[in-house]
Amino acid sequence: xxxxxxxxxxxxxxxxxxxxxxxxxxxxxxxxxxxxxxxxxxxxxxxxxxxxxxxxxxxxxxxxxxxxxxxxxxxxxxxxxxxxxxxxxxxxxxxxxxxxxxxxxxxxxxxxxxxxxxxxxxxxxxxxxxxxxxxxxxxxxxxxxxxxxxxxxxxxxxxxxxxxxxxxxxxxxxxxxxxxxxxxxxxxxxxxxxxxxxxxxxxxxxxxxxxxxxxxxxxxxxxxxxxxxxxxxxxxxxxxxxxxxxxxxxxxxxxxxxxxxxxxxxxxxxxxxxxxxxxxxxxxxxxxxxxxxx
Length: 294
Hints:
Elements: H1 2-9, E1 21-23, E2 30-36, E3 39-45, H2 56-68, E4 75-79, E5 82-86, E6 91-92, H3 95-98, H4 101-116, H5 118-121, H6 131-144, H7 153-167, E7 173-175, E8 184-186, E9 191-193, E10 200-202, H8 204-215, H9 219-230, H10 236-263, H11 270-292
Antiparallel strand pairs: 1-2, 2-3, 3-5, 4-5, 6-8, 7-10, 8-9
Helix pairs in contact: 4-9, 6-7, 6-10, 7-10, 8-10, 10-11
């Protein structure tokens, strides 16, 4: 952390000498708040992470586009591995917040704008985030690293293949692809969407399913979410496709944690996180299979 703080301190962007204050919670980067000439800035520091498909130059481009679309804080400075953002004074949402209907009504326009508006401002080559390819690559990484989970991979990858077939044809939008409650900030007047590490073109069902699974929405809320997003009643075909994508979202989170067990240097109990998400995935998969049964 000291090395990263020094990198932030030495940026030629600052007008005065600064003291970066660490912010807890980053799992793929180190975060700091910096005060310079009476103004606060939020600084993210992180290198490319090939095992997770994170490309920092792409993250920067996504942040700039999201800022131009009006849904994310302004990027005021960027260099390799460092992103300086306008600081938003507010609080991050909790899962309990997201489950409130009035909060979902505020979140949905942000998701729509990410999907539809961000691509209009994105500059340069853009990545695609196809969860099933992510799962295949994670499985290969786990085998190469001799993960403790290798014996489980044949079943998990076979289930992923079945889920991919169940998803079927999809529309393509620009997805955030990591809709955790903590990636929404409420400044008291409006919501902001932050953290575009995994952003890229994807099916809208992935963000909708991820929002639901990350925040434990109940089935009635899921139906309402889909109806409001697509502005029509939920067909059986869309419901099955959505549920398959939601399962894939949970499997991807589980395998992200398995890979992090091998490769992350952050002090975090990834093994417990793996088990927690696998349990949620298995429950969701059972409900999906019941849904598919005649």
